[in-house]
Amino acid sequence: MNIYDISKEAGVSIATVSRVINGNTNVSQKTKDKVLAVIKECGYTPNAFARGLGLNTMNTVGISCADSSDPYLAKAIYYLEQMLRKNGYDVILCCTGYELEGKQKYLNLLLSKRVDAMILVGSNFVEAEDSKNDYIRLAAKKVPILILNGALSGENIYCALCDDFQAIYDATNALIQNGIKDILYLYNSKSYSGKQKLDGYMAALKDNGIAYRKELVSYFTGDLQSVTNHLVSLSQNGLDFKGIITSDDSLAVGAIKYAKALKLAIPEELSIIGYNNSIYAECCDPELTSIDNKLETVCKNCVSTLMGVFSDEPVPLKTIFPAEIVKRETTAF
Amino acid sequence: MNIYDISKEAGVSIATVSRVINGNTNVSQKTKDKVLAVIKECGYTPNAFARGLGLNTMNTVGISCADSSDPYLAKAIYYLEQMLRKNGYDVILCCTGYELEGKQKYLNLLLSKRVDAMILVGSNFVEAEDSKNDYIRLAAKKVPILILNGALSGENIYCALCDDFQAIYDATNALIQNGIKDILYLYNSKSYSGKQKLDGYMAALKDNGIAYRKELVSYFTGDLQSVTNHLVSLSQNGLDFKGIITSDDSLAVGAIKYAKALKLAIPEELSIIGYNNSIYAECCDPELTSIDNKLETVCKNCVSTLMGVFSDEPVPLKTIFPAEIVKRETTAF
């Protein structure tokens, strides 16, 4: 099926068909309706040809994430793809890496493909320095932008996330109630969510009358082995801690391996709490107490918000879900 | 930019532009070249509009996998997306589930979107009963089909895989050389690759003069905890084994947890070998000896084969890479 067939079927010239589908106003409403009716009759809308010709939907949503092989992000992409497909949308996947430059480049690239919306997966998309997020606000002038696990204000930007502040606050508080006051906080992201988590740790200390000690907060990125080495070196340099809370399960697995290297009993001599309740938490030994940040719920909300936006229904700009601590073997409570 | 601009720039009528881009032969070669040159100059090819008008490429490759949150498949998707994007192709992702019906449905759906090619990720796409694969052969009449980690014969079907037979043969042989003769083989897939692996196990036994015992081959699917329970129940029913080889790392983690439950020393009383060398292998304790099936290499080959197909270069129908055993703490060798 092509432009000839449409013109023949509608009984108008090819030029007229072109005018209609390119939104040229120099066509009578009657002719326009006739051409669009033919296009619609042919079941043309989801067809790349018709879409490309300027009908307004690609029925395609772009999903950007830093690294689709990260177990947590992989899970999010899986949920989103399933839910979007159920609603008749294709997913164009884009792995941007963790650098701002890649995120910007691929967001613009996907916009040029005329996706109907963009979902940015992972709090790392929201930079702590707010002006660096302006490229997202600019993109939101073209299509709705949804941010999964990050919060950003702006027109046509919708956020679905988990209450990371409260989650780490509660975890820290739980350890303190268990008599552990020297808690190492280990994190690997300075994103919006990373900041929320750190704030939760500090607030819990404060509310329990425990002084904040800078040396107990450690920013570190690297593979499993290097996380273990990092903790061993902190300990060998005389830092004393009986609890570790991490911003990510992979860091917590590194902490478990550190305990093993130093022959520390878990949880008797060291308590550990991870974040994301990912596959890591069940693979390791002992199994990891971890914060479940309700990924499936957040993804479901994200897609239903998007469908609301598409149908011009009123939708919330920001939806925040509470997390839950899943207790396993690395804590005494 | 639209069809008007092209016609103006090329100095021909809109109808002529339409004829050219729809492949109508009723245009002189000279005019055709002129129009195509304008289209090319405008950098038009990757634009949805131009593509939709009938230029033959969407610059989009469909990737189907059963479950993009499976760590192994997630890694494959990540590699493929990166490599395809470098070559200027978008990725439409589709999670089909493990049932034949879903695989068929989504393959046809993606074809209707006019993807330039399809990559089927994971050996589970190739059914052991060959007639069930005919829907793939049918699809290959429209676009090239690439199968990652599965082998299927057929025109326009290209396979990149790892030698699963030899990998399990070598692993089984290594345990036997270590004096372990009662080896449990635990698997969770009856796909092409699943069959290759099982054959490798049986061939190694045979070549070492060890009788095949049906009760030592166990098919089981389920989550981590249920794998552990399954092994405990096999053992409690009197089955004796000193080695476990699994078709997948997640099963091997279940085996490690089984050893822990029964207080068996690893590897002194039980040796374990996993498959895929995934993130599981490093998270568990003790760390898992696992077969690295060279996923990145296989993905790279798959994409370069596809680019070869697109440029009409001669490409192999099937490329097979050797695997490698990565030795960690669950084996004595």
Keywords:
homodimer; 333 residues; alpha/beta; six-stranded parallel sheet; six-stranded mixed sheet; 13 helices; 12 strands
Task: Provide a descriptive summary of the structure in words.
Two copies of one chain form a homodimer. Chain A has 333 residues and is α/β, with parallel strands linked by helices. Helices cover 44% and strands 17% of the residues of chain A. Chain A has a six-stranded parallel beta sheet, sandwiched between helices. In chain A, strands 7-6-8-9-10-12 form a six-stranded mixed beta sheet, sandwiched between helices. In chain A, α9 (192-207) links the parallel β6 (183-187) and β7 (217-219). In chain A, α2 (14-21) packs across α3, α5 runs parallel beside α13 (295-310) and α10 crosses α11 (249-261). Mean pLDDT of chain A is 90; it is low at 44-55.
Principal-axis shape of chain A equals elongated
Largest interface: A-B, 51 and 51 residues
Number of strands of chain A: 12
- The strand line-up of the biggest sheet of chain A is 2-1-3-4-5-11
Order of helices and strands of chain A: HHHHEHEHEHEEHEHEHEHEHEHEE
Unreliable parts of chain A: 44-55
Structural class of chain A: alpha/beta
Quaternary structure: homodimer
* Strand residue percentage of chain A: 15-25%
Please summarize the sheet with the most strands of chain A. 6 strands, parallel
Distance between the termini of chain A: 66 Å
The count of helical stretches of chain A stands at: 13
Query: Could you estimate the helical fraction of the residues of chain A in percent?
Result: 40-55%
Q: Give the integer mean of the pLDDT values of chain A.
A: 90
Report the radius of gyration of chain A as a whole number of Å: 25 Å
